[in-house]
């Protein structure tokens, strides 16, 4: 497998499992995350899986646009092309916080950072022919509520709505990118990996994390990181990756919410994202 794959949020959970699986198949992997020691450890594990493959960790916080721009420049310098970009990094914050640019941090890190990174790497994805963009969605997008807008404010902050809106934005972005990028050979799809047992919500403290895990465990909804990564690896490596603008779960196309399928919502999130990142159309 002679492919270069960039994976965000690769230090643990779903991203780690995806990186290890792709490295095991012979891919060169560039791992992105906030935790340097964990990232270096995962890169080392990837090299063990396939001694001939390259595995490198690059530290970046996706909620900081400055760090995303530095990251993208480093990737462009070190890669001749990018075959697969996996927009996986995600978090939820129990209390309101802002990115360096003043954007609510859940939306900034889960969506805006990936929107910006994807655009800054598009030229290298186009060289892959076909390049593939895989963005991680969630069943949580069904709970999105845009009544007060896409981005949560400090007053009346709702952590679940903030996360749901960001995952809706991920799916809408994947679909809109496919539609707008149709003339090129870059595909764009979204994936629902299921509710993965991972460090998700651990940033809010042990109690919050345990509450999150136990609630889903009681309902028997949790899956392992390896199971969650399976569809991502499938899209990254199989001929199914030539499909574009779709939403996948368990290797099969699945439906999205009415909001996610609404073309007007697609135009809204695209316009908002351009404005918040300062990118041109």
Provide structural commentary.
Helix 6 (206-218) links the parallel strand 7 (195-196) and strand 8. The chain has an eight-stranded mixed beta sheet with strand order 3-2-1-4-5-6-9-10, with helices on both faces. It has a two-stranded parallel ribbon with strand order 7-8. The chain has helices at 13-24, 36-49, 65-78, 105-126, 159-180, 206-218, 225-237, 258-261, 263-277, and strands spanning 4-8, 28-33, 55-59, 84-87, 131-136, 186-191, 195-196, 222-223, 247-249, 252-253. Helix 4 (105-126) packs parallel to helix 5. It has one domain (4-197, 225-277): 3-Layer(aba) Sandwich (Rossmann fold). It contains nine helices and ten strands.
**Level of helix content?**
40-55%
Q: How many helix segments?
A: 9
Low-confidence stretches: none
**DSSP E strands, number:** 10
The CATH superfamily name is NAD(P)-binding Rossmann-like Domain
In a nutshell, what does this entry contain?
With 281 residues, the protein is α/β, with parallel strands linked by helices. The protein has helices at 13-24, 36-49, 65-78, 105-126, 159-180, 206-218, 225-237, 258-261, 263-277; strands spanning 4-8, 28-33, 55-59, 84-87, 131-136, 186-191, 195-196, 222-223, 247-249, 252-253.
